[in-house]
Amino acid sequence: MLKLIKSNQKNFLKKLEIILQKRKFKDPKIDLRVKKIIRDVKKNKDLAIIKYEKKYSKIKNISSNKIKFSISEKKTIIKKLDKKTKMSIDLAFDRILNFHKRQKLSSYSFTDKYKNSFSYKLSAINTVGVYVPGGLASYPSSVLMNCIPAIVAGVKEIYMTTPSMSRSYNPAIIYAAQKCRVKEIYKIGGAQAIAAMAYGTKLVKKVDKIVGPGNAFVASAKKQVFGDVGIDMIAGPSEVTIVADKSSKPDWIAADLIAQAEHDESSQSIVLSDNIKTIKKINYFLLQQLKTLPKKKIAYKSLKNFGLSILISNKKILIDTINLIAPEHLEIFAKNDEKILKHVRNAGSIFLGEYSPEAVGDYLAGPNHVLPTSGSARFSSGLSVYDFFKRYSVTKMTKSGIERLGTSVINLAEYENLKGHANSIKIRLKKKES
Q1: Is residue 103 scored above 90 in pLDDT?
Q2: pTM for this model (two decimals)
């Protein structure tokens, strides 16, 4: 079922890179439609939001007083949530909070030999907007993973938006938002929700940074508003790469590949193994397990169109392959997992050993599940407390300090033909332009 590639073929890594690139296709028509929506929301504010919600939710009687969940609505909705789910959310909240509390940044200061003082300070972002998808991809875990790092960082106000005008809300999302002390929840979605949080309206709060996953329209909107507002990342469909050998359990690996594939038809599940028999057994169990999967159509298309099995010829090519793929999730279920780990440079989140399925990371292991996709783990990291801090430096020069260092500043400024820079030093040294 998974397309087989052998690493001993000529130019293997280049061919693999071409295959991986095919999944990154972007529709320029989406960007144009999103650009129009953003422009409309900036100009017409709430009227534009209502227009697009009517269009996409297909509800004609939307009014401005229905854009936010009221306090009484939230209370009523939360009452519908079963006790077991509440307890699971509580457990996940505590574990994610405990993990992120350990992510620490510290300010520092020092004085140089001329008694100039320098410091590096931190301050939390003031307001954050969290986008939570609606419909089939409506997950309370997304609320926890996006809000908890912000809470730990000390963000003062968290706002949330989730498509709910069709009245198909998820009570677990509302409960998770309450746990995370979200100030307001808006019932809007899509590009119009991103634009509303980026630029503000009478009803929707303007925020400093927007985080959270979404479809192609949401991703395009986040990309287009970046610069006017901060964003976490441009995330694509989910992906997993699994390293297996003859000691691995093929039925367990098949289950983990399917767990990723059921997210989206464009999700990518890859297995790397030096054992062809293991690959064949994994393919067998994939077909068996898909038969009873509720989302088997989605998972089947994902595995058929984007799934890969790669027969690895040696350890070096294994490491090179992992680092080229730079997977969102990397599972290493081989005997020498720790040795392999030492050489991994590019991965969003790593799971070691057969009892560490990626699914546990999606919910309550503790580390964040908002991760770089489509190879962006080469240069970026998963969401963390660090993403909700701003950092700035403070410089205080002494008279003797500027006198000792000023001449070198003047030399560099004049070399770069920036006479104004040089003069701002000279005037303090009481030197005239020669």
Answers
A1: yes
A2: 0.93
